[in-house]
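Researcher: Structure prediction, please.
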Amino acid sequence: MKADQLVFENLIDLNPTIGKISFNDKRMSLVSTEALGLFRRDLINTLGMERTKGFLMRYGWACGVRDGREIASMYHWDSIKELMLAGPVLHTLLGVVTANPDKIELDEDYLCFTGTWENSYEALEHISHYGHSEDNGCWTLVGYASGYLTETFGKDVIAYESQCIGRGDPICRFVAKTLDVYDTQANKMMKYYKADSIDRELNRIQKELYEINQNIIESDKVHQQLTNFLVEDKDIQETTSFIANILNKSIVIDYYNNIIESAFVKEADKQSYTNWTDKFVYKEEKKNEIRTFPIRTNNVNLGRLVVISKEKMTNRDELIINRALSIFTVQMYHQWKITQSLWKKKENFFEEMLNNTNVSQSHFEKFTHLFHFHPNQLNRILSIKIKSKTKLREAIQYLKVNYLLGGKDYFINNDNIIIILSEEEAENPKSFSYNLLEDLKEKFQNTQFYLGIGRCANNLSLLRESYQDASSLSEFNMLTNPTKSHISSYEDMGSIMMFLKGVDQKELIGFYKRTIGEIIRYDEFNKSDYLMTLKTYLDFNGNLQQTADRLHLSIAGLRYRMERIESFCGIDLKTGEGRFNCQLALQIHFAISLRNEQATFG
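Model: Predicted structure follows.
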């Protein structure tokens, strides 16, 4: 018997009288491919894609083994090759798929059988319900081919698709080979044949659903306990410790790597956190399971939750963390609102105290104790200006947890951060200011900060002056060099402080540039020293001989230079007004130069 001699009438016995269809005396039934497609869809929706794939491949395997056994017993085959070729013919006759073998190689221990499948009902039904997928779709056909060939060849044969219309290929192409340890694709398919039965699959899913349900119940109980924490007005520390104990994992609430609250179940976790945040030792993430969760609400970044453990987080842990995040958010937002309210009161008080000169000093001194402020001690005002209002809010949030500002009074006034320095820091403000600036630059990269330090003060009247100094200097720093962070103090700029506070700073800077800007540009381009010639000339009150001697020039050479300088400035240096304007412009220039030099080398 040859495979191409199989005909449908000889294979299938139709008996419409009794409603029976038989294949080799085994009863069969006709089922529409649409119904099979719906069955496949419901399996996927119940078991998931991977489990359904395994189930249908095992189902196809069982069908292929049965048909191989039946067809082998029905006829006397010319060869084992003809028996194996009968499988594709049988599949085609039964309307499952049009199978077209194109190569079959076999010997006693080896089989390689390839071909194409056309009009695969299975691929078409999959596409109709799910569209094209990344994976092949003819799972039952693959299983059938594997089972049929294994039964008829007598050795393990694994079939798989190298192409499939279910994933967008133009045709379905199958490959069937005897099992080879070196065949990666075939070995990948073996896991589906070794999987459990549908009954066990359903039991496994039921178990998973039970575990999910138990996790939800437990997380709901935790959420109820956390809700009670809110009602009882428990603090964040208690919430943090509670969650750490429930999860048996270390919990940290931080803001820009500064700890707000923490509960470490192991001392080693504390060191791991320090290495990970402060020292940026990223290998800690390989040694530990470190997960972060943002804590935000109403566009306010309140901080983040960090979970540290040796074990990976389970679904139960994830559910509890999600419940806890909502409670942490409420607690931290409530705390933030209270702090904002207190800050607003402090802002209002200090703003009134620093700006209202019509109220006596003694009036404010009655209330300074409420803010733990002592106006008659040595104090200074430090002003920080930031262009971006968003960064300004973030910086204020960060300063709340910054160790440098512990115990200090600070608030926002006129879009500036105002910090009151007292005692030792008021005596030596540069060291504190430089440390604070470096810390801010590290946390907020690509953001410029402009710091101004006012004069020393030991009463409210001088503190107001210090406040005006600091505000003017921070504004001046931003205007003169907006692309780089700077610090200036009252002592650096004393000679022009009254101008900075008494006139529009943009106008003052414009005056300086108009007056000597051309000389500065000429010197920079030609590597000359006309600006120092002008300064020396003014230092000697216009005395040509003294100026020439100091600069080692001849009188004629000096006269030539002075004529060039007057033409650059458009000023007559023989007049008092001309000399005064150049003197003032020089003071502004050297104040800016000193400020830039200190910012570079400080």
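Model: Confidence is low (pLDDT under 50) at residues 597-602.
Researcher: Thanks, that helps.
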